[in-house]
Specification:
By secondary structure, this protein is of the alpha/beta class. It folds into two domains: about 210 residues, Isopropylmalate Dehydrogenase (3-Layer(aba) Sandwich); about 130 residues, Isopropylmalate Dehydrogenase (3-Layer(aba) Sandwich), CATH 3.40.718.10. The strands form two sheets. It has a ten-stranded mixed beta sheet, with helices on both faces. Strands 6-7 form a two-stranded antiparallel sheet. A hairpin with a 7-residue loop joins β6 and β7. α1 crosses α10, α5 crosses α6 and α10 packs across α11. GO terms for molecular function: D-malate dehydrogenase (decarboxylating) (NAD+) activity; magnesium ion binding; NAD binding. Its cofactor is Mn(2+); Mg(2+).
């Protein structure tokens, strides 16, 4: 029996609560399958750790995490710690340090999930965003000049390398070919006359190797409009770090809400561990009340299962989510139910084991 070692970083706010249900889901998948198991080690890093130690995680954290097969992250961020510290000194440090250059975020409307778009059906909203995850607008370099003077100037660099753009675009083309879906590149080449013109150029270059894939291109403002007016036009989507971050939150809004929004940070080369997380944030206003929606965390656990090669169990987890939504049972208050976080997670577990 193969044992996978998983590093668990519950993080802040509702992170520990939803993380318990992700772990429960993975253990249920292992028990149902019978050919693999999980060993979990938990690390208390995050904002509370920062307030006690002056750092979001220890200096040698990446060396510690390097030994694991994958990482589960709950949430990062809490009042009292500036957001640019909580994000950049944990989540982005792991993404960059482990070259997790592919971010995968499904935008899929499951039957029974709430949707604000009038008349939208599940078959109308079924897309996968492939977001560049290691450079671009979030590279983190720049300058802050003449602080606290009338001449104060801030420069935020965006870094787009040929290697970085080509590998994420090629990954998206491969996925589009595999899924037999169209591929839409989203940029802003009319205004960003260096970075996005470069992105568009590389999309065209790589696209020549995929004559069988239907290729589309949209400016980010038009893409935002079409995601609301005509979401069925999208299959696989590839875009930059910033645009992908913003558009996938819009995607969550039209496909059931943030409580169903999952994300995978992949190192496809498997040189380093990949990281899986719900993207709803730490929600400090409801932390500790036992009402947080764990389904996004369960969905991210399904992404982990698929990445490890257990797609059948990943599909079982997604079907379990769909069953709760379809039957409108064991759902948390944000989804119109009365279940607690753990009751929802236990319902998923029962369906996984059935």
């Amino acid at each position: 029996m193969e044992e996978y070692r998983i590093a668990v970083i519950p993080g802040d706010g509702i992170g520990p609560e939803v993380m318990d249900e992700a772990v429960r889901t993975l253990n249920a998948a292992a028990k149902k399958d019978g050919t693999f198991s999980f060993h979990f080690d938990t690390f208390p890093w995050g904002c509370e750790y920062y307030l006690k130690n002056g750092e979001m995680m220890p200096a040698d954290a990446l060396d510690t995490l390097k030994a694991y097969d994958a990482i589960l992250l709950g949430a990062v961020g809490f009042p009292g710690v500036p957001d640019h510290i909580s994000l950049r000194d944990l989540l982005l440090k792991i993404r960059h340090g482990f070259d997790e250059y592919i971010n995968v975020r499904p935008v899929k409307l499951l039957p029974g999930a709430p949707c604000p778009l009038a008349g939208a059906k599940p078959e109308d909203i079924d897309m996968i965003f492939i977001r560049e995850n290691s450079e671009g607008e979030y590279y983190g370099t720049g300058s802050w000049l003449y602080r606290d003077t009338p001449q104060e100037v801030v420069i935020q660099d965006s870094v787009f390398s040929r290697k970085g753009c080509e590998r994420v675009i090629r990954y998206a083309f491969d996925l589009a070919r595999k899924e037999k879906k169209s591929l839409t590149s989203i940029s802003k080449g009319n205004a960003l006359n260096y970075s996005m013109v470069f992105w568009d150029q590389i999309f065209e270059e790589v696209g020549k190797d995929y004559p069988d894939v239907e290729k589309k291109h949209l400016l980010v403002d038009a893409a935002s409009m079409f995601m609301v007016k005509d979401p069925k036009r999208f299959g696989i989507v590839v875009t930059s770090n910033l645009f992908g971050d913003i558009l996938t939150d819009l995607g969550a809004a039209i496909s059931g809400g943030m409580g169903l929004a999952a994300g995978a940070n992949l190192n496809p080369d498997r040189t380093f561990p990949s990281m899986f997380e719900p993207i709803h944030g730490s929600a400090p206003d409801i932390a500790g009340q036992g009402i947080a929606n764990p389904l996004a965390s369960v969905w991210s656990a399904a992404q982990l299962l698929e990445f490890l090669g257990h797609k059948d169990q990943a599909d079982r987890a997604l079907e379990a989510i769909a069953t709760l939504l379809r039957e409108h049972r064991d759902l948390t208050p944000d989804m119109g139910g009365t279940a607690s976080t753990s009751e929802c997670g236990k319902a998923i577990e029962a369906l996984m084991l059935a």
